[in-house]
């Protein structure tokens, strides 16, 4: 059983920053790619960023490129999402998720490819 616990969400003004953390337990964290997704009310859950199991490559949604940075510390079993220059449209519940495949060379933007999810953390950006 894998557990993912997000933290770091909150209320911030537009232009501000937040750093989300996702602590993992229950399996060898360093063998699996990780993703951050977000879901706004009434909308689908969308990919924000992914990071390969070894941290060697990352991908981002176009809407967050150059503002968000995903990283991981395998020694701490933790993945991070640094969010800068936040905008009201970034308001959503943010989820971290673990890829179902071991050491996958490429990560999917499809939620179905991720088999473990955190409980989510709310990010609210005021204008």
Structural key phrases:
127 residues; 0% helix; mainly beta; 7-stranded mixed beta sheet
Helices and strands in order:
Elements: E1 3-7, E2 10-13, E3 18-25, E4 32-39, E5 46-51, E6 58-60, E7 68-73, E8 78-83, E9 92-102, E10 114-117, E11 121-126
Parallel strand pairs: 2-11
Antiparallel strand pairs: 1-3, 3-8, 4-5, 4-9, 5-6, 7-8, 9-10, 9-11
Characterise this structure.
By secondary structure, the protein is mainly beta. The protein is built from no helices and eleven strands. The chain has strands at 3-7, 10-13, 18-25, 32-39, 46-51, 58-60, 68-73, 78-83, 92-102, 114-117, 121-126. Strands 2, 4, 5, 6, 9, 10 and 11 form a seven-stranded mixed sheet that branches. Strands 1-3-8-7 form a four-stranded antiparallel sheet, with no helix packed on it. β7 (68-73) and β8 (78-83) form a beta hairpin. The termini are far apart. The mean pLDDT is 95.
